[in-house]
Amino acid sequence: MNSQPIILASTSIYRNQLLSTLQIPFQTASPDVDETPLLGESAHQTSQRLSQLKAQAVAHQFPDALIIGSDQVALLEGAQLGKPMTHDNAVRQLRSMRGKTVDFYTAVSLFNSRTQNMQTALAETKVKFRDLSDDEIERYLHKEQPYHCAGSAKSEGLGIALIQSIQGDDPNALIGLPLIVLIDMLKKQGVNIL
Q1: Which of 75, 93, 98, 128 could pair covalently with 103 via S-S, beta carbons 3.0-4.6 A apart?
Q2: Range 135-139, long-range pairs (CB < 8 A, 24+ positions)
Q3: Mind listing the pLDDT tens digit for each residue in 115-137?
Q4: Helix, strand or coil for residue 63?
Q5: Is 131 considered catalytic here?
């Protein structure tokens, strides 16, 4: 069993909760990374690049660790949807998504700061949103206030009421951390979950 400490390079309580389900010891660290997409960068490229940057951003603090970085980008009709940050932006996002399918690209990276080995994988989740009324959108936003979530909805919370269907290989990916591929990555580094 690998004895390197495991670091989650994220301040997200949702990623923390997901990683906790694996029942392995880990610490969290805050990566200071600019999440702005680069010009001409696709949604999956953005999420992969940012997941790697987040893992590498804390490597100087943990020079002998396995560091997990993750990032999610939502894509609607070719346009990337970021975190809305405000109520008005969330209203605009949810109105634009009603009745449509949004692709969520969630990348996870595992960086071994001792060996400099980087593993990265991408999980795609297709989410079909219900044809919501303006009142339903307002009621949802006032109840859950998902202003720090790509796509303005939390599928692990009340946001599930906005969703008509979900297609993907890992239900955890939509929440923010693709655990199925992460388990494989950890195993390659000598960390067995079971």
Answers
A1: 75
A2: 136/162, 137/91, 137/94, 137/95, 137/98, 138/91
A3: 999 999 999 999 999 999 999 99
A4: coil
A5: no
Residue 95, token pair as written in the block: 């109105």
User: Is 69 in contact with 31 (CB distance < 8 Å)?
Assistant: yes
| Residue of 160, 103, 86 lying closest to 130 (CA atoms) | 160
Query: 112 CB contacts (<8 Å, ≥6 apart)?
Result: 4, 65, 66, 67, 118, 189
At 151 the pLDDT is 86
- Compute the distance between CA of residue 6 and CA of residue 149 in angstroms, rounded to an integer: 25
Beta bridge partners of 125: 104, 168
Give the pTM.
Answer: 0.92
HSE-up of residue 68 (Cα within 13 Å, Cβ side): 31
What is the DSSP secondary-structure string of 110-127?
EEETTTTEEEEEEEEEEE
Which residues, at least 6 apart from 74, have a Cβ–Cβ distance to it below 8 Å? 43, 80, 81, 82, 102, 103, 104, 105, 150, 151
- pLDDT of 164 strictly over 80: yes
Q: Where are the domains of the chain?
A: 6-188
**Choice among 32, 34, 71, 103 that is catalytic:** 71
Instruction: Work out the burial of residue 45: count CB atoms within 10 Å of its CB; fewer than 13 is exposed, 13-18 middle, 19 or more buried.
Output: middle
CATH architecture of 6-188: Alpha-Beta Complex (3.90)
